[in-house]
């Protein structure tokens, strides 16, 4: 058995009552969710190191917006200095080094999300883009950003008037054969690039997406360019650029999001990332793709890794939120009979509000860990030129998976953070609970790197293509095997709920999800076809199928994927952990299924009251069964106390002592208001 002594034991205290009830060792569960002991060790090393560094000390009062940006950049520089992943490891295999980088990102995100986003955009999104879209001549930029940390980058896609619809962006890059340069231009404010992270104050380069135009006036669609923005020595922006800061946001204010306008700004011809298309010195456009939309597709596919990073970060935010709320619920008592006040955690309502999210946090972490491995293996093979069977189909399937799972995870965390805040009552509203910061720093993830509502439509598109293929050719393009069952669609749709069925079973859960996907897929297809028959274009017809169809379909597929991957991993976990993991799996599955009862009845899978009652009874039973386990589960999910940074969720469980310490040490807590003279009614003289 692995030595887990590098994970510090938890302090003894009021939470022991519940900790003793757990059927498993929380450190083993932690390792099972992390999947790799070296990565778990790395995470603890990062947390312990930063805890000792005053630059990372938490502030009891939110610093000014500008100060948050300064601190975030200083912290990023310091993290680079610590060299947590030595250069030799970075030069190792793609999969291993990416996993290490992702772990660093997760560890930092739990501590200060602004810093991890700065790092993710400034170093990893940029360097990944160079690897996937650039060629030999761009490797110096890769070295400078990834290995030497000499430049900090940004990623400029969004414009003021166009975000999700990238095709209509209007920044241009016109080739000038005389100077062998591209001239970047912003026609008007609506085409200004905006929201670009790191651009407002700090980045030295940006990866710019602009419409490529050749000297013959022909437009070739969006392409990516490496564009210098600031002098690295002075951080002065170069002439020909108008760069500004976006101003205060409702979260992640440590990131300097900026806007930029280009005024006939020249860059060398070689700064075009030219893996898929190039312009010769004379100005002739050459592309390995005939269709410009495929070039954009290849460029944007590069976002998958970033979206996986967002999902990993989401798992950590959810872990922290539920850890705070559950520890609070185990130490806070309210009401009761015969002088025995009851801990909140023992109320059925409180369990129902929180335990589904605890189960989701565990299921998502195991799922994303496993999915990331599959993803990285495919990319590694493909980069190394090793043949991957059905590579382009696998890429499409992965894209569909990411497109529905990033929305599922990010939305779930947002809902969880709000529920956890409310579950901690008024004290949850203190900044010191950390629930507010977790929620507001997480919030933009539902919008950036693909707005959730728009992104999830892409999973629906892929599923509909598979439906068509299954019903016409009797086969599907699903190299990862996630929808092979669609070839049995007709048989699956004949299933009905039989009263008395044991719903707390893997078979029931998975077969019911398959039924739901088949049913909603068929409904979506029929609706889409009927809109086309009415004479609508494909675009218009799709828009008419979004609500109750496409959107539901995408959510169902995402939930199914989480369950499917978790179930596969479950078999490999320690025997001691299996009972609790199985219960968490069932709870997440049935709790999610509860949200789809309408479709089960609408489609005739269920009739009468049995199905709904069985599902809901099982959810409540599972909540009760998990009462003794859940504190141990959140111990496994939680980071160290320093990282969790919550007066309500400290692992010692000394809720009221910790609250007193925090309230009593608030700066100025006991002082008379400095502005007292401005507000008191000074009695007027009667003389
Ligand atoms: C904190 C933060 C950081 C960011 N960082 C970067 C960055 O570094 N680089 C960068 O380039 N961008 C960045 N962005 C921008 C982000 O990527 C965009 O906001 C995002 O792509 C959505 O585009 P939009 O804001 O133009 O929204 P829109 O596309 O205008 O969407 C607005 C709303 O309309 C809905 N909608 C749009 N189209 C449809 C449709 N067809 N059917 C139904 N509904 C639809 C959407 O769901 C959304 O709710 C960042 C944003 C934020 C908030």
From TrEMBL:
SUPFAM superfamilies (alphabetical): Acyl-CoA dehydrogenase C-terminal domain-like, Acyl-CoA dehydrogenase NM domain-like
Residue ranges constituting the Acyl-CoA oxidase/dehydrogenase middle domain according to the UniProt record: 155-263
The protein, known as: Acyl-coenzyme A oxidase
Molecular function GO labels: FAD binding; fatty acid binding; pristanoyl-CoA oxidase activity
Binding residue positions for FAD: 158, 197
Active site: 449
One GO CC term, this protein: peroxisome
Localization annotation: Peroxisome
InterPro entries assigned: ACOX_C_alpha1 (IPR055060), Acyl-CoA_Oxase/DH_mid-dom (IPR006091), Acyl-CoA_Oxase/DH_mid-dom_sf (IPR046373), Acyl-CoA_oxidase (IPR012258), Acyl-CoA_oxidase_C (IPR002655), AcylCo_DH-like_C (IPR036250), AcylCoA_DH/oxidase_NM_dom_sf (IPR009100)
Family: Belongs to the acyl-CoA oxidase family.
Annotated GO biological process: fatty acid beta-oxidation using acyl-CoA oxidase; lipid homeostasis
Domain Acyl-CoA oxidase C-alpha1, first and last residues per copy: 303-464
PANTHER family linked: ACYL-COENZYME A OXIDASE, ELECTRON TRANSPORT OXIDOREDUCTASE
Domain Acyl-CoA oxidase C-terminal: 509-680
Cofactor entry: FAD
Signal peptide: none
Keywords: FAD, Fatty acid metabolism, Flavoprotein, Lipid metabolism, Oxidoreductase, Peroxisome
């Amino acid at each position: 058995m692995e030595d887990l002594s590098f994970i510090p034991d938890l302090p003894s205290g009021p939470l022991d009552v519940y900790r003793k009830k757990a059927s498993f060792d929380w450190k083993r569960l932690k390792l099972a969710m992390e999947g790799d002991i070296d990565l778990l060790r790395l995470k603890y090393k990062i947390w312990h190191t930063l805890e000792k560094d005053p630059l990372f000390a938490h502030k009891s009062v939110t610093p000014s917006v500008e100060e948050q940006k300064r601190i975030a950049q200083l912290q990023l520089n310091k993290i680079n200095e610590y060299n947590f992943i030595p250069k030799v490891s970075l030069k190792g295999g793609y999969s291993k080094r990416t996993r290490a980088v992702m772990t660093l990102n997760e560890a930092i995100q739990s501590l200060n999300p602004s810093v991890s986003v700065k790092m993710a955009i400034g170093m990893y999104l940029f360097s990944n883009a160079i690897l996937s879209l650039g060629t030999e001549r761009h490797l110096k930029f890769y070295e400078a950003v990834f290995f030497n940390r000499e430049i900090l980058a940004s990623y400029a896609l969004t414009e003021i008037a166009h975000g999700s619809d990238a095709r209509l962006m209007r920044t241009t890059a016109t080739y000038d054969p005389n100077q062998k340069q591209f001239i970047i231009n912003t026609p008007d404010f609506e085409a200004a690039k905006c929201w670009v992270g790191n651009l407002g104050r700090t980045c030295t380069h940006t990866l710019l997406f602009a419409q490529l135009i050749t000297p013959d006036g022909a437009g070739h669609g969006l392409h990516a360019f490496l564009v210098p923005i600031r002098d690295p020595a002075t951080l002065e922006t170069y002439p020909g650029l108008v760069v500004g800061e976006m101003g205060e946001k409702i979260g992640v204010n440590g990131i300097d999001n900026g806007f930029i306008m280009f005024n006939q700004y020249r860059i060398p011809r070689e700064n075009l990332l030219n893996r898929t298309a190039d312009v010769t010195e004379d100005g002739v456009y050459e592309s390995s793709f005939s269709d410009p939309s495929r070039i954009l597709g290849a460029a944007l596919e590069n976002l998958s890794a970033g979206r996986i990073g967002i999902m990993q970060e989401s798992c950590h935010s959810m872990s922290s939120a539920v850890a705070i709320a559950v520890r609070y619920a185990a130490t806070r008592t309210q009401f009761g009979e015969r002088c025995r006040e009851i801990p909140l955690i023992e109320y059925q309502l409180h369990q129902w509000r929180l335990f589904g999210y605890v189960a989701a946090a565990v299921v998502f972490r195991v799922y994303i860990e496993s999915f990331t491995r599959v993803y990285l293996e495919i990319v590694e093979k493909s980069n190394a030129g090793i043949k991957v069977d059905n590579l382009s189909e696998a890429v499409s399937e992965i894209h569909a998976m990411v497109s529905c799972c990033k929305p599922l995870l990010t939305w779930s965390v947002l809902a969880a953070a709000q529920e956890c805040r409310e579950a901690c009552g008024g004290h949850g509203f203190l900044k010191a609970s950390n629930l507010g910061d977790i929620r507001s720093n997480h919030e933009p993830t539902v919008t950036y790197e693909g707005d959730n509502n728009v992104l999830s439509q892409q999973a629906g598109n892929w599923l509909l293509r598979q439906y068509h293929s299954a019903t016409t050719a009797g086969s599907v393009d699903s190299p990862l095997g996630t929808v092979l069952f669609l070839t049995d669609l007709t048989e699956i749709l004949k299933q009905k709920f039989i009263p008395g069925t044991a719903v707390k079973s893997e078979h029931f859960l998975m077969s019911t999800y398959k039924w739901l996907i088949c049913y909603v897929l068929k409904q979506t297809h029929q609706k889409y076809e009927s809109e086309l028959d009415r004479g609508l274009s494909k675009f218009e017809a799709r828009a008419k199928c979004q609500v109750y169809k496409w959107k539901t379909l995408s959510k169902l597929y995402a939930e199914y994927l989480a369950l499917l991957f978790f179930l596969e991993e479950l078999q490999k976990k320690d025997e001691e952990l299996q009972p609790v993991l199985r219960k968490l799996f069932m709870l997440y599955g049935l709790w999610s299924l509860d949200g789809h009862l309408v479709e089960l009845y609408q489609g005739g899978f269920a009739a009468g009251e049995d199905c709904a009652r069985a599902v809901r009874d099982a959810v409540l039973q599972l909540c009760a069964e998990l009462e003794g386990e859940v504190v141990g589960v959140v111990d496994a999910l939680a980071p160290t106390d320093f990282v969790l940074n919550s007066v309500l969720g400290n692992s010692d469980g000394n809720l009221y002592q910790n609250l007193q310490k925090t309230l009593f040490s608030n700066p100025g807590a006991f002082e008379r208001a400095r502005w007292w003279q401005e507000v008191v009614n000074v009695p007027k003289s009667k003389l």
